[in-house]
């Protein structure tokens, strides 16, 4: 393509320059606008293509941005460990430094609410850490001395001093980024088709242009081929012009100039062939359709990354689901409240009062539930957070504790009997065990002078249409698989609820293990779509034949960066591919018709010939047609429900197996 564009632009410029500098030729052939138009449309196509490519890969920096750029480096003058009640020793000082400067073995302080900057082990302190983006576990995980933490996870409750075990390119997130980038380095098959056409096409057009010039300028070319050494023969034969000799009237056409110059005629027709066949439409065919399709999807809540996925989607015969944030909502919610003697609203009211200023997800869920019920929260005093265990505060003159059972029970002298506690736990868990609310844990509430008075069931709720989506896919012959980093019990319960067979359930997987599951299925000949939402899904989303990410927040997640598609409906992919092939067909058909006309096939009989400017105009119109045809995708309807978006894949013919 570059060669054809270059030859056409240079030829048009040289002829225009010669005509301008030698007015005595009376060629009237100044068309300096041609090189500008040619290069302009080619660059337009390239920019559209590059924009689509950027959407597919540049967001990988979002993964690395999850790591804090600044860290608190802890420096001590002795090797003495801090006391059990203190995170830092008395002689410790903290210096804020760039995270890139942290080395293995350095000690780092992470305060509540901050993102952990390095992989490491907890040296001192206790807290709960949100690891959902890596493990899929929606509830915070308790951390204390000796336990490992990962860069990019969030420290919720208490300060932690961490000993760095891996930093920079060796961190967990950096490894995930490399896996994603390696898996994404694939060229779109449709673009390969356009490139395969463009190569021979360019050389063919150059040959046709030379043949056009040779035909109209003279059969002396034949003499050159027969006797290259006979230059005098070439000169003597140059007065015979094959095309103009056979069709002498063509020299009367305006493009031959006022003197009927065969050289000018031949040059113009040769340039016509180069210009009219410039593969701008061919170059625009794929990127414009894909760009419009992806832009349309973005406005409808869909995000499509890269053109190749639109083809591969049709061959999907296995769909692998992550659990947290995909089949479930991905965040803890209050699903039930139970008490020995109090109303549910009273338990929720005093628990929300205690947790009102806490920042961890469970506290936020309790407060949110109270707000939804319009409960008036009493004033509290002296809130104390025990990282990983619970929160204590004074409510209406009495201490109230909210947290783990053992911790709450120890706060007060009055102890509930084991049988009462078992009955309370059974009651709150049973209320939470509906298909839409699988309870994962219970939070207990205790009051001074009474001991444990109630429990709140926390659950990660199923999406309302998860079960029907899985069922619909299975009825269409597409096998559904569940791969999750969460506990086996939680994963098995969700799988049973939505109808995924036990043999297709995989639990407690790391991001690398998820990728291996996808790779194993692909090796067996299956075409895999992966549906996920977190950082832990990023490598498998990128490795799968089609990655589908569900966004649970306003901004894109790491899964969004790695996925091929976010909430992509089958109908949109088919419509986009239809536009790609329509554009390619138009580009080919246009050249089949336009090139002979540009070469002068209508000149002898109808006295019709193109000027290079007219040829350039046709080239521009062909490109405009491609862009306009792609823009018609905007008329395509949207799919509102994620169920429709994913389950519509089932309308495609399933692949083998």
Automatic annotation (TrEMBL):
UniProt-recorded name of the protein: P-type ATPase A domain-containing protein
Name the GO terms of the biological process aspect.
copper ion homeostasis
> Which key words tag this protein in UniProt?
ATP-binding, Membrane, Metal-binding, Nucleotide-binding, Signal, Translocase, Transmembrane, Transmembrane helix
Q: Which residues cross the membrane?
A: 201-218, 224-242, 584-602, 614-633
Which is a Gene Ontology cellular component entry for this protein?
A: membrane
Classify the protein's membrane topology as the record does.
Multi-pass membrane protein
**Residue ranges of every copy of the P-type ATPase A domain listed in the record:** 91-181
The question of whether Nucleotide-binding is a record keyword is answered with yes
Per its UniProt record, what PROSITE patterns does this chain match? ATPASE_E1_E2
What is the source species?
Gossypium trilobum
Classification via InterPro entries: ATPase_P-typ_cyto_dom_N (IPR023299), ATPase_P-typ_P_site (IPR018303), ATPase_P-typ_TM_dom_sf (IPR023298), ATPase_P-typ_transduc_dom_A_sf (IPR008250), ATPase_P-type_domA (IPR059000), HAD-like_sf (IPR036412), HAD_sf (IPR023214), P-typ_ATPase_IB (IPR027256)
The record's GO molecular-function terms, alphabetically, read: ATP binding; ATP hydrolysis activity; copper ion binding; P-type divalent copper transporter activity
Alphabetized NCBIfam families for the sequence: ATPase-IB_hvy (TIGR01525), ATPase_P-type (TIGR01494)
What the entry lists under Pfam families is as follows:
E1-E2_ATPase, Hydrolase
């Amino acid at each position: 393509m570059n060669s054809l564009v270059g030859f056409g632009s240079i030829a048009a410029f040289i002829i225009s320059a010669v005509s301008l500098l030698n007015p005595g030729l009376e060629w009237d052939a100044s068309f300096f606008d041609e090189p500008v138009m040619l290069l302009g449309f080619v660059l337009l196509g390239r920019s559209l293509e590059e924009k689509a490519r950027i959407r597919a890969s540049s967001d990988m920096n979002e993964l690395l941005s999850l790591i804090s750029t600044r860290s608190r480096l802890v420096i001590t003058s002795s090797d003495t460990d801090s006391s059990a009640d203190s995170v830092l020793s008395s002689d410790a000082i903290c210096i804020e430094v760039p995270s890139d400067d942290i080395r293995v073995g350095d000690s780092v302080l992470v305060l509540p609410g901050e993102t952990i900057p390095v992989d490491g082990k907890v040296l001192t302190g206790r807290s709960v850490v949100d690891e959902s983006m890596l493990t899929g576990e929606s509830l915070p995980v308790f951390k204390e001395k000796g336990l490992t933490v990962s860069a990019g996870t969030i420290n919720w409750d208490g300060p932690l001093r961490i000993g760095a075990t891996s930093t920079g390119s060796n961190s967990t997130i950096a490894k995930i980024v490399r896996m994603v980038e390696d898996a994404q380095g694939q060229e779109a098959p449709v673009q390969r088709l356009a490139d395969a056409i463009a190569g021979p096409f360019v050389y063919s057009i150059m040959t046709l242009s030379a043949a056009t010039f040779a035909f109209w300028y003279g059969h002396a070319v034949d003499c050159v081929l027969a006797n290259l050494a006979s230059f005098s023969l070439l000169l003597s034969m140059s007065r015979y012009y094959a095309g103009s000799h056979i069709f002498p009237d063509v020299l009367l056409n305006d493009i031959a100039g006022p003197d009927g110059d065969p050289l000018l005629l031949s040059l113009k027709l040769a340039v016509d062939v180069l210009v009219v066949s410039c593969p701008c439409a061919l170059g625009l065919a794929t990127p414009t359709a894909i760009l419009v399709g992806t832009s349309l999807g973005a406005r409808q809540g869909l995000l499509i990354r890269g053109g190749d996925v639109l083809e591969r989607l049709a061959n999907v015969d296995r769909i692998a689901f992550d659990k947290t944030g995909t089949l479930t909502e991905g965040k803890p919610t209050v699903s039930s409240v139970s008490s020995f003697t109090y109303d549910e609203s009273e338990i929720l009211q005093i628990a929300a009062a205690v947790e009102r200023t806490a920042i961890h997800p469970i506290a936020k869920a309790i407060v949110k539930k109270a707000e939804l019920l319009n409960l008036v929260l009493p004033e509290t005093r002296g809130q104390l957070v025990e990282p990983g265990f619970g929160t204590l505060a004074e409510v209406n003159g009495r201490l109230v504790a909210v947290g783990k059972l053992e911790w709450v029970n120890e706060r007060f002298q009055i102890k509930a009997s084991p049988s009462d506690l078992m009955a309370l736990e059974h009651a709150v868990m049973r209320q939470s065990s509906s298909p839409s609310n699988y309870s994962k844990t219970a939070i207990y509430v205790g009051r001074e002078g009474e001991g444990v008075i109630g429990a709140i069931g926390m659950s990660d709720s199923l999406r309302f249409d998860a079960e029907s989506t899985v069922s619909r896919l299975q009825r269409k012959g597409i096998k559904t698989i569940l791969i999750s980093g969460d506990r086996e019990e939680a994963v098995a319960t969700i799988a049973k609820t939505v109808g995924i067979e036990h043999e297709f359930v995989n639990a407690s997987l790391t991001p690398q293990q998820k990728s291996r599951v996808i790779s194993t299925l692909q090796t067996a000949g299956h075409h895999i779509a992966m549906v996920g939402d977190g950082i832990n899904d990023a490598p498998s989303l990128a490795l799968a034949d089609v990655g589908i990410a569900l966004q649970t927040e306003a901004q894109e997640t790491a899964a969004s960066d790695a996925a091929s598609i976010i909430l992509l409906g089958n109908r949109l992919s088919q419509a986009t591919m239809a536009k790609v092939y329509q554009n390619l067909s138009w580009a080919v058909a246009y050249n089949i018709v336009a090139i002979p006309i540009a070469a002068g096939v209508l000149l002898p009989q109808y006295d019709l010939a193109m000027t290079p400017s007219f040829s350039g105009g046709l080239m521009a119109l062909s490109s405009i047609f491609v862009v306009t045809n792609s823009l018609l995708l905007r008329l395509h309807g949207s799919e509102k429900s994620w169920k429709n978006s994913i389950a519509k894949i089932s309308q495609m013919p399933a692949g083998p197996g």
